[in-house]
Write a structure and sequence with these properties.
The chain is an all-alpha fold and 444 residues long. Among the domains are: 1-149; 287-439, no CATH class. It contains 16 helices and no strands. Helix 3 (48-79) crosses helix 7 and helix 8 packs antiparallel against helix 9 (250-258). 47% of the residues are buried.
Length: 444
């Protein structure tokens, strides 16, 4: 750790990890609901819709905290200066955590906007916006004060601007339902698959440089591609949702083709770095973080690239839209693109923040492979269940509950895979919070 203010990043990471565990626990409860008949008194206390709101909002909260903590770790090293205001960073962390707790408690008592994935009440929406603006101000002032600009800083700052801006479109209600859903997708798709992609691209570029010693120009050229694809395909890629809200048919093709291009820059950045490492025969000391970085690229390709492209092809999406195939794509894409990215920066930064140069990665490897294998199984079982659902409901024209009965076996397999995923996650969380020096360093 080179700069004192980087310490604030640890508390963002420490707050994010328990929220990740809670999100997975709620996800297991959702799988139980699909697999078994839950007693009515439990449903009355904790309905499926409330559990789903917990699951998705916890996802957004812990990932945002991870991005923010990662940014606060990276910015001092990129600008070669301390963070503009540590107090603002603490205020931001506390505000977001209080908002998250208030939202979750509110869901239990029906305090919600009622819109899926954007359930939190408008009053709390404004607190989220304030937190995002404080974050943008703090990072922006750090960069302006240092005046030591890099492409990584510019990409990161651009992502943070859109992070704050695009969320605003999901706050108000619109009288016309088509318009309301149109802007709803600006948050659900463009905010997540546009602004988040810029932030993750910048974080990944920084990690690859530090891990491998690869030249800055190698990773920065892909950041230029990332920015270009965000501007030219990110907006168009959102269009594969528009047909279903009453927009013209051509949006199916435009959205289906362009949305598949979004993950390419990060994937190519990692594989280009691998090529340079192999060519120079460079030694990578932090092998576990490198494993996470490569795993992030591979799972990103599978979940967001392959699964996303196949799922959004018009001929397929016509039948699978809104089915468990969507859930399969969502789980693989979020895990590959953002969960593994956060865990990559966690494993890079936390040992350094604790003053450990080389750490024991045996537990971390077990956690990584357990989570990745379990998530692949979950993605496949969700996919099989979704294909069954689409065929029974939309080809045969049979009822929703008939389809659910055929899906139950596959949801049961998903539940088992979810238990293994939780085991891998708990191993990872314990390893991160109690990271140990490698044996050679400990003996020295």
């Amino acid at each position: 750790m080179e700069y004192r203010s980087q310490k604030i990043a640890y508390w963002y990471f420490a707050a994010a990890l328990p929220l990740f565990v809670l999100q997975v626990l709620v996800g297991l409860w959702l799988a139980v609901n699909y697999t078994f008949t839950v007693p009515q008194w439990i449903v009355d206390v904790f309905p499926f819709s409330t559990a789903r709101a917990f699951h998705t909002n916890l996802l957004v909260l812990w990932m945002l905290l991870g991005f923010m903590g990662g940014t606060y770790y990276i910015i001092p090293e990129e600008t070669k200066s301390e963070i503009y205001s540590e107090k603002l960073a603490w205020f931001q962390l506390i505000a977001l955590l209080v908002t998250g707790v208030a939202a979750l408690i509110g869901f239990l008592f029906g305090w919600t906007q009622g819109r899926p994935l954007l359930e939190i009440p408008m009053a709390l929406d404004f607190v989220v916006v304030i937190g995002a603006l404080v974050f943008l101000f703090n990072v922006g002032m750090t960069m302006l004060k240092a005046r030591n600009w890099t492409v990584i800083q510019g990409t990161l700052l651009g992502g943070l601007v859109f992070l704050a801006l695009l969320y605003l479109f999901g706050i108000p209600f619109y009288r016309n339902l088509v318009i309301d859903w149109y802007y709803w997708w600006w948050v659900i798709h463009l905010w997540v698959e546009g602004a988040w992609e810029l932030v993750t691209g910048a974080i990944m570029a920084f990690i690859l440089m530090k891990l491998t010693g690869v030249e800055r120009e190698v990773v920065e050229k892909w950041l230029y591609v990332e920015i270009g694809l965000f501007l030219f395909t990110g907006v168009a890629g959102t269009g594969h949702h528009y047909y279903w809200i009453g927009a013209p048919r051509y949006w199916l093709w435009v959205g289906g083709i362009f949305s598949a291009l979004e993950p390419l820059p990060i994937i190519m950045m990692v594989f280009d770095t691998m090529h340079h490492v192999k060519k120079r025969q460079a030694k990578i000391v932090n092998r576990l973080t490198w494993t996470y970085a490569v795993g992030c690229a591979v799972m990103h390709l599978i979940g967001a690239g392959v699964w996303g492209f196949l799922h959004t092809l018009p001929q397929i999406n016509y039948y699978t839209h809104g089915s468990q195939v969507t859930v399969s794509h969502g789980h693989l894409a979020f895990f590959g693109a953002y969960a593994l990215l956060n865990l990559t920066i966690f494993y890079y930064a936390i040992p350094k923040l604790k003053g450990i140069a080389a750490y024991d990665d045996s537990r971390g490897k077990i956690g990584f492979w357990t989570m990745c294998i379990a998530m692949m199984i979950m993605g496949l079982t969700f996919g099989v269940a979704g294909v069954l659902q689409s065929y029974i409901e939309r080809v045969l024209g049979m009822g929703y509950m008939v389809a659910q009965s055929y899906m139950r076996l596959w949801m049961g397999v998903t539940l088992v895979a979810g238990v293994f995923f939780l085991a891998g996650l708990l191993t990872t969380v314990v390893d991160l919070l109690t990271v140990r020096p490698a044996r050679a360093e400990a003996q020295a």
